[in-house]
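Human:
I keep going back and forth on a fold encoding question. Comparing notes only helps if you start from a blank page. Show me how you would write down a chain together with its backbone fold. Write it directly below this note and I will take it from there.

Assistant:
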Amino acid sequence: MPLYRDEAVVLRTHKLGEADRIVTMLSKRHGKIRAVAKGVRRTASKFGARLEPFMVADVQLYEGRSLDIITQAESIGSYGAAISGDYASYTAANAMVETVDRLTDDGGSPQQYTLLVGALRSLSRAEHAPGLTLDSFLLRSLAIAGWAPSFDACAVTGESGSHTAFVAQLGGVVSDAVAPPGSPRLDPATILLMGALLRGDWDAADASEPRARSQASGAIAAYTQFHLERGLRSLQHVERTSS
C-alpha cells in the first residue's frame, strides 16, 4: 500500500534543499526508514520539532520511488531536548543511535527498537549515569544481534571459573589456557559489573565503583567495535568521567 503508519525513533537528519530534511528512523515494524520531511525547516512547520534526533513519533508515510515521504508525525516520546541539554547524555545517545544504525536494516527489529526507546527514555530522565546506560545498551543491542558476550564460563571451552582475561575476538572472558599472550585482564568487580549491565541489573550497576566502570567501558567499547567491524565515531566524544 502507498500509505503506511508506524512508530519510529529518529536516528539522524540531513538537510535537503532550502526547507526539507531527510530523516533516518528506526521503526517498530518496518525496520530502518529513510524519508523526506517536506517543509520542516520552516518556522511555520507543524511537526518539525517532532522529527529531531532522539524523538519518538507515530508517523504516517507515503511510499516513494527512492525515499518515502512523511505526511504526518505525532509525538510519542519527547526525549530530544532533555538529552541535548546534558553533554554526557547527548554523546551517549549519539553512540546508541550510531550503533543501531549499523546493526539494523530494512527488515525490521522490534527488539532493537524497544531497547533503543527505553534507553533514550532513561537518559532523558537521568535514571542512571549516562555511561552506564550506554554500556548496558551496547551489550544488550549486540546480544539481540546474536553476539552476547560471556562473563561467566570461558567463551571458548565453556569452563566455569573466575576468568579475568577478556578477549573481544573470542567472545568474552576466557580461561588462562586459551587466552592469547598479552590478553587484557579485568578486575573481578569489572566482570561482575559487565554481567549486571547485560542483564539490566541496575541495583548492582548503580552501586559499582569508578574503577570498575572505567574498565568496563573500555572493554565494552572494544567488544562493540570488533563486532561492528569498524570504529564508532560517536564513542570518541563520550564523556566517560561521568560514568
Q: What stands out?
A: The beta strands are 3-16, 20-27, 32-37, 56-62, 68-77, 165-167, 172-174. The longest strand covers residues 3-16.
